[in-house]
Fold:
Amino acid sequence: MKYTARIEDSVTGTARDDQAVEIGKEGIRLGGTFLDYALLSMLRPINHRVILTKMDGSEITISMLGHSFDGFWDELMGSFGKRSADSLFIEEELLMSCEGEYALPVSENGRGMISLYPDAVCILPESSHAVRIPLCFTDDIRQEGYLIHIHMRTGESYTIGKMGFDTMPFAERCIKQAGITKAKREKLLKGLETRPIFTEKGLFRTKQEDEYWLAAYGTNTCAVELVTNDAAATYLYRFDDRTLFTYRLEEAMEAVGSHREIIFLAGDQLADKPLYQMAIHRSAAVRFLRSCSAGRIIHNASHQEKLQEFLK
Structure:
């Protein structure tokens, strides 16, 4: 839907009345300017104004929407949330969704849409900190009153809840799905075989039963090979703490699912891929893995020699 509003830009200091505003699937058009959702850090409704905070800290204020304000805000949040969900690469069917409160490990709390899928819980806030919590890596899920605490094996904790009468059903189904997902992954992992010199193995998404990855470790190095239908390559990493690296490696691989190029594309190659930019921003594990990158080895005649040399 198209709207008419006043647009103020904190960078240029300009304010323009009667500007056409149109909300799209990938961003919002403000007059003659298109603003991709990948550039937005926070959306806030304040006194019938909508303030868009960009990743660089600058702000755009949309005001004078009149009676269209509520409809504008709902449509904007719906489109921004849908795009955020797309960047989390959610592939399974929705089991349950409701509005509730949340608290994230990044010291952010508020209200947003909270959804349950067969393999994950998704939180879509008014910020760029949308998160997909993989149930396979949870250590404990516990309901206390109207709050649900989700503890991860890395020590991180998420709190969701205050969903009214939906809180208890959400908690019960969440706990059930965590058990189902963990059991399925364990069974699938047992069926995978490693091969020299790879000693570790892991899955991407639980539903992707035929695709997995293998890892070989040196002292402070790791080589990861993706077993997929794509062209083969081995990805190299350097790290300080093996336990932390292994956890983040598993989490990053699960997070990207079938979009595995995210783990190796260089920064300049992401310039025309805003959805991937959003995905990297929303996954600490993916950012960590990318920060450990030490290149890759293409499968050719010298592959084995280069691999052995790197691991030494």
Observations:
- The two ends are 59 Å apart (CA to CA).
- The CA atoms of residues 27 and 36 lie 4 Å apart.
- DSSP finds six helices and 19 strands in the chain.
